[in-house]
Amino acid sequence: MKDDKDDAQLCGQWHRVCELAALPEQAGRSAWLEGRVLALFRLGEHVYALDGVDPLAGVAVLGRGLVGDAGGEPVVSSPLYKQRYALMDGRCLDDPALSVACWPVRLEGSEVWVQLG
């Protein structure tokens, strides 16, 4: 069982998630990391990590969303209600009251690392 002290120890730590090759180009994948569902998106050599739970539906489906572009900004559209979330910061372009958490990502060689905070 986790307690608040365990969560505090995870804050700011980097975690290896997968190999870059495991992420398809221009698409998303879900990953389970430290009790969270993340939605990972690869656009070229850039990888983005958002909370995988759709805030309206309450289910982990964002990793299956459609990746696209809104005025030059990379976004994912929820497969359920179609809201668009910016991959850079998790804000919803269609409803300012909605957002999803966004996690820092770094590449080390061919490995994808995410910093949970």
From TrEMBL:
It comes from the Bacteria. One of its GO terms (molecular function) is metal ion binding. Keywords: 2Fe-2S, Iron, Iron-sulfur, Metal-binding, Nitrate assimilation, Oxidoreductase. Gene3D superfamilies: Rieske [2Fe-2S] iron-sulphur domain. SUPFAM superfamilies: ISP domain (SSF50022). InterPro entries: NirD, Rieske-like_NirD, Rieske_2Fe-2S, Rieske_2Fe-2S_sf. Pfam families: Rieske_2 (PF13806). Transmembrane segments: none annotated. GO terms for biological process: nitrate assimilation. Residues 15-114 form the Rieske domain. The keyword Nucleus does not apply. This is Nitrite reductase small subunit NirD. The gene is nirD.
